[in-house]
Amino acid sequence: MSGGKKKVLWVDDEIEFLRSHIMFLETRGYCVTPVFSGDDAIHLIEQNPREFDIVLLDERMPGKDGITTFEEIKQINPDLPVVMVTKNEEEHVMESALGKKIDAYLTKPVNPSQILLVCKRLLESRRILSNQISQKFIRNYSENRTSLGGYLSYKDWIKIYDNLVYWDLELDKTDDEGLRQTHAGQKSDSNAVFSDYLVENYVSWLKGEREPPVLGHDALQKIVLENQDQFKTTFLFVLSGMRYDQYIIMERILRQFSNVQKNNFFSIIPTASVFSRISFLSGFLPAEISKKDKNIWKTGIEDEKQTSPFEKKLLSGLLTANGIKINNNEPWFLYLSDSVDSNQIIQQINKCKKSRVNVCVVDFFDFLSHNQPQRGVLKELIRDESGIRTLTKSWFERSAVLKIMKDLVSKDCRLIITSDHGNVLCSRSTELYRVQNWSKNLRYKFGSDISCDERRALFIRNPVHFGLPDIIQDKSCFIAKENYYFVPPEKNEQYKTQFRNSFQHGGISMEEIIMPMGIFTR
User: Fold this and answer.
1) Tens digit of pLDDT for each residue in 267-294?
2) pLDDT at position 376, please?
3) Is 457 exposed, middle or buried (0-12, 13-18, 19+ CB in 10 A)?
4) DSSP one-letter code for 518
5) What separation in angstroms does the CA of 482 have from each of 21, 475, 500, 509?
6) Closest of 408, 403, 400, 360 to residue 233, by C-alpha
7) CATH superfamily for domain 6-123
8) What are the angstrom distances between the C-alpha of 256 and each of 170, 260, 395, 401?
């Protein structure tokens, strides 16, 4: 494509009547080459396929008509934008042009401003959009920076994070790497302040002090079940490990056929399913759960599958205690695997005639990645946040899960989408000493004599005070802050190579803690 002035090739057998239009474009910085026939246009483009930036093409001309000329142009240069300009208002002509993927369609008579607008839209919209985004971003950046220096409540933090996620999605539309780096820096600064804020307030929140947010173990009670009487049936999808930005992408798709009410809560720590999901589904902190059943964490505290067998029973107890009818002869509680068949799941859901709350649990990050066949390409794609958002949108638009959700909303069910915790892109390592068990989890560790740099992690001397099971009362705990991940000193370089810029969970960051809960109704 040409540099400097944008070059327009205007093809019309009555081009002499368009001199005023051509002059108008030229005063606006365009260079226009007029020709009288399709053959002349093809000849010029064949000589230099990259000479012109856009073609304005009359539909009715002697010799080669506009449609034929368009087809030949696209064979020479498929990327060259072509605008059809015609007196013909017949619908079949428009459909023919659009069916052949014409870039724009204008009906004569056209005024100069219409021509200018379509040229700007096709050639300069990305630059104009980028400029507008830049101006808005700079104003927003200053406002956020000021906010971080003052007192912030949990509601303020939800607004700040919601705003940061908004800009994640906006900046995905631009090629301005400088803006993206500036935004990443502000997110990092925000996470540092947020981590300190959460550490300072968390234990008080567990006691109901300091105006706590809704925490993970109260989310079902205070959000889902509070207005359950107004709905005949609720279907809850717990997409374990889903990030806030991934939720927003799915919400935008679901808004096309449903109304939405968005709520938020804070996950409990550590932000790992072995603690946060069972707590979310049971309505109790892990310390309270372990008093009821000592076997839940009997064989381990870092195995993400350890608590799964107990989740349905504990959730059933919570629903029953709140007067919510379920029928254990119905498949009201389902784990969706990465090989889910939408029709089969819909059939199972249709069997739930009496259960007023039905739950589908998905190990979301694994589910998402396992649905992608090219694991090498996938590995590259999910090494940054923009990539994981692109993958989420591509997957969700074609997924069995979306088909199931559409079916539920169409049947006037209340659909709720949430997660028990998120995940964060970890780019900084910190050494953790005297750890006996280096499992795959790198954001939290338990041990009798472990230690690390406490500027980068929360040290918990007595985990029970943080609502964790008393089975680990003789051990202390470190939970990584911001985007740090733990590495063993003796394998420092190996772990850095393997896990730097990987998505992890279990720690303290906005991405892992601040959770969305979207309620969708028709």
Assistant:
1) 999 999 999 999 999 999 999 998 888 7
2) 52
3) buried
4) E
5) 57, 23, 14, 5
6) 408
7) Response regulator (3.40.50.2300)
8) 20, 10, 17, 16
- pLDDT of 94 reads 58
CATH number of this structure's domain 216-424+512-521, picked from the four choices 1.20.1440, 1.10.3470, 1.10.155, 3.40.720 = 3.40.720
d(CA 195, CA 3): 48
Q: How many CB atoms lie within 10 A of CB 106?
A: 16
- Strand, helix or coil at 278? helix
Q: Where are the beta strands (DSSP E) in 419-456?
A: 424-426, 428-433, 444-447, 451-452
Torsion, Cα of 169, 175, 177, 181 (10° steps): -10
Cα 104 to Cα 97: distance, rounded to the nearest angstrom: 9
pTM over 0.85, yes/no: no
Which of the residues in the chain have pLDDT under 50? 1-2, 372-374
Q: Which of 240, 224, 249 is nearest to 366 (CA)?
A: 240
Helix 154-171 vs helix 244-254: angle between axes, to the nearest 10 degrees? 70
pLDDT of residue 56: 95
Helices (H) and strands (E) in the chain, counts: 20, 19
Q: Output the pLDDT for position 337.
A: 78
Q: Which helix (H) or strand (E) holds 244?
A: helix 244-254
pLDDT, residue 135, reads: 86
Q: What's the distance, Cα to Cα, between the start and end of the chain in Å? A: 47
What is the distance between the alpha carbons of residues 8 and 12, in angstroms, rounded to a whole number?
A: 13
HSE-CB for 295 with a 13 A CA cutoff:
4
Which residues, listed in sequence order, are joined to residue 458 by a DSSP beta bridge? 479
The 10 Å CB-count burial string (b at 16+, else e) for 212-224 is bbbbbbbbbeebb
Contact 202, 460 (CB under 8 A): no
What are the extents of the domains in the chain? 6-123, 127-206, 216-424+512-521
What's the distance, CA 465 to chain centroid? 34
Strands lying side by side in the sheet with 451-452: 451-452, 428-433, 484-487
With residue 188 as reference, give the H or E element that holds it. Answer: helix 177-206
